[in-house]
Amino acid sequence: MKGQERALKILSGFRCSGKIPSALLFHGPPGVGKRTLALEWAAAIVCERPGEEGAACGACRGCEAAGRGAHPDLRLVGAAYQAALLGEEPETQRALKVDTIRHLRREMETTSLWGGWKISILEDAQTLESASANALLKILEEPKPRTLWILLAVSPESLPKTIVSRCARVPFSALRAGDVEEILAARGVPAPKARAIARLSGGSAGRAVEMWEEAADGEEEAPAKGDPLAPFSLAESLPRELPLARRKAERIIALEIEKLRLDVIERRVPFSKAGPALRELRDLLRAVGSNADPRAAVVLSRIALEVLSS
Ligand SMILES: [Zn+2]
C-alpha cells in the first residue's frame, strides 16, 4: 500500500492494541487505496491464525475465502452488491438505499458463521440516503460485539455529523506523483508513459490506471505507427456519445501534452521543435473544452505530433 503511511499506522495501532472500533471511516479522494486497504485489513481480522503484529497468515480458511471475496462474514457493499440484493442493474445504483442497510443489519446481527468478526465495508458512504443514514445511525449507536462497519467516503463533511461522530477516522491523502508512477510501473506501464500519466492523475492511482487503460485501448485500435490513417482510426475509436467522446479526446490530448513536456524536460526533443506543437496541442485541448468536434481535434493533435517526429 503506497503513500498511505498515516492510515496504515492508525490501523496497525488498533490491531496491535486489540481495540478494534465498531465503526471506521476511511476518508479521502477517490482512487487512493481506501477500498484496497479496507479489504486487506478486514481480511487480516478474519484470519484464523494471524502472525505477530496481526498480519494475515495467507493460508488459513479465513484468508483463503477472503482472498476469493467469498468469506461468509465479510462483505463489500457497493453498486454490485446492492444491485444483486435488490434485483437491479449495477449501473443504476446511485445511492445506498435503506433496504440495503436493513438487510445488512439483519446479516450483522446473526451469529458469525465462522466464529470471528462480522465485517461490512460500505463503498461510497457519502451516497447514503437520509433514511439509510438514520437506519445506520441506529445500528452504530448500539453496536453488537465483534461487528465492524468500515465506511469509505470522500470526506467526513460528506456524511451526517451524527454518523461521523460514531466512527474512528482514518484519513487517506492524494498520492505523490512518484508513488502513482511506481504503481503504474508495477503493472508494466513503460516508464515515460507512467511518468506522464502520474503527473496528470491528480494523485489518484485509480484514475491513473483508468487513463492508462484508455490510452492502451486507443493504441490497440489504431494501426501501426507511420500509417497515414492512424489518427483517423484513433478518432473513430472515440465513444459515440458526444460528452464521452469529448472527455476521452481531452484525456488523449492532455496525455500527449504531458508526454511531450517530459520529452523536452528530459531532452529527448529540443524545445525549438516541440514548442510549436505544444502550443497547437494546448489550443486543441481548449477547443475541445469549448465545443469543438472531439474527433477532428484528436486527428489534428496526432498530425501535430507526426510533424514533430518527421
Ligand atoms: Zn489466515
Describe it.
By secondary structure, this protein is α/β, with parallel strands linked by helices. The protein folds into two domains: 5-171, Rossmann fold, CATH 3.40.50.300; 177-309, no CATH class. Helix content is 55%, strand content 8%. The protein contains 14 helices and five strands. The chain has helices spanning 5-17, 34-46, 61-67, 79-86, 98-109, 130-141, 161-164, 177-186, 191-200, 205-221, 230-236, 242-265, 271-289, 294-309; strands at residues 23-27, 74-77, 118-122, 147-153, 168-171. α5 (98-109) runs parallel beside α6 (130-141) and α8 crosses α10. The mean pLDDT is 90. The protein binds zinc ion.
Features:
single chain; Rossmann fold; 2 domains; 14 helices; 5 strands; 55% helix; 8% strand; elongated; binds zinc ion
Summarize the SSE layout with pairings.
Elements: H1 5-17, E1 23-27, H2 34-46, H3 61-67, E2 74-77, H4 79-86, H5 98-109, E3 118-122, H6 130-141, E4 147-153, H7 161-164, E5 168-171, H8 177-186, H9 191-200, H10 205-221, H11 230-236, H12 242-265, H13 271-289, H14 294-309
Parallel strand pairs: 1-4, 1-5, 2-3, 3-4
Bound molecules: zinc ion.
